Amino acid sequence: MTDRNLELFERAKRVIPGGVNSPVRAFKAVGGTPRFVQRAQGAYFWDADGKRYIDYIGSWGPMILGHGHPAVLEAVQKAALDGFSFGAPTEREVELAEAILALVPSMDMVRLVSSGTEAGMSAIRLARGATGRSKILKFEGCYHGHADALLVKAGSGLATFGNPTSAGVPPEVVQHTLVLEYNNIQQLEEAFALHGKELACVMIEPIAGNMNFVRASVPFIKRCSELCTEYGALFVFDEVMTGFRVAPGSAQQVYARSIPGFEPDMTVMGKVIGGGMPLAAFGGKRAVMEQLAPLGPVYQAGTLSGNPVATACGLATLAEISKPGFYEDLGRKTRSLISGLQAEADKAGIDFCGDSEGGMFGFFFFKELPQNYAKVMTTDNARFNTLFHGLLDRGVYIAPALYEAGFMSAAHTDADIAETVAAAGDVFKLLSK
Ligand SMILES: *Cc1c(COP(=O)(O)O)cnc(C)c1O
């Protein structure tokens, strides 16, 4: 069945480290041979053997409309005819910036870049430049791209700063990064009492999608915001994954429903805003954003930033998601997937729980939803791997690692969801034996 995938993987491993250009694609956590994608359309992709899969990764979030949406395809083809890259400004960049700002009112200005990593890294430099402070605070289990200062795990105590999680990151580079437990208000307050006046920013994934799917509690977000205001640190929402994925106004809109008037100071975006092309952004209040070069002293630049083909793709994608009822339909389908899986797990007598917001979801072999990274990491790996491969065999592609979220697209049909739920039901039965 997977001969051609295997052949390609062997060939890839000779010329690309691990055979992949981003580690999770190698199936290291789940074992087996990665599927090499030949083509994709709507909710499906076909691997090198021509086998079809229902795709719940969607390029890790960007493909919110599904693959090859006709309006997006047309926009990209049209833009490509006018040129791939100029290194000079274009009207389309202005249009995309205006479209983003119209949907996310906490931002007055936005700068376009090419990847989420670049956006997060630049946001931190700007926060440091704007506040004149060096230290930053992040939370365990949140991923903000692979900039050196962010590849860090918690130190041994609140007064100590983090340790690098990657070789090649000198300890001195992460000595300004404080790492705390997600959703732990007491630890947050203690850390602010010790270091609040030295903090340039607090960065968070408001709904963490890089430890499966874990929401920051409303009181936690509220307290983060209050402490940032009190101590003069910037509260940065990393919405690279959640941006335009969970709601038209992104995760900050979801929190503003419970915390009236809530706005982060800065927002980092990626994934959906590029619709599958390399495009990301960071933005915030005018006074902060005007610290960026060429207006201010904080340097930031990019040869391909605001790329004309990528901005066309992003604009066409944002136009589709702005249509009435888009998120209602997406959210309904995502909830129906999770409740379908829950019903099958219940039938099989398996501990299971799941959660979703808009087109983003997660599920766990737990009775209750976890609140932090340490709990997520107690997931039974063997169980997850059986589910993963069971689904893969049955033509359903979920993330090949238990600490990743899943994604629904507008192209998924109720029939796709029913097929997925039935496939999971088969595997749950095997697991319960
Ligand atoms: C994907 C992701 C990033 C990194 O984006 P890249 O485009 O992969 O560099 C940063 N933050 C979050 C929350 C993400 O999900």
Explained architecture:
This protein has 14 helices and 18 strands. The protein is α/β, with parallel strands linked by helices and 433 residues long. α6 runs parallel beside α7 (218-231) and α11 runs parallel beside α14. The protein starts with a helix and ends with a helix. It has helices at residues 3-15, 70-81, 91-103, 116-131, 171-174, 185-195, 218-231, 250-258, 286-289, 308-321, 326-348, 373-376, 381-393, 414-432; strands at 37-41, 44-47, 52-55, 109-113, 135-139, 152-153, 163-164, 177-180, 199-204, 207-208, 214-215, 234-239, 266-269, 280-284, 353-357, 360-364, 396-397, 406-407. The longest helix has 23 residues, at 326-348. The protein folds into 2 domains: 4-68 and 325-431, Alpha-Beta Complex (Aspartate Aminotransferase, domain 1); 70-321, Aspartate Aminotransferase, domain 2 (3-Layer(aba) Sandwich), CATH 3.40.640. Pyridoxal-5'-phosphate (PLP) binds at residues 115-117, 120, 143-145, 205, 209-210, 238, 240-241, 270, 280.
Question: Tags for this entry?
Answer:
14 helices, 433 residues, 2 domains, alpha/beta, Aspartate Aminotransferase, domain 1, globular, Aspartate Aminotransferase, domain 2, 4-stranded mixed sheet, 7-stranded mixed sheet, binds pyridoxal-5'-phosphate
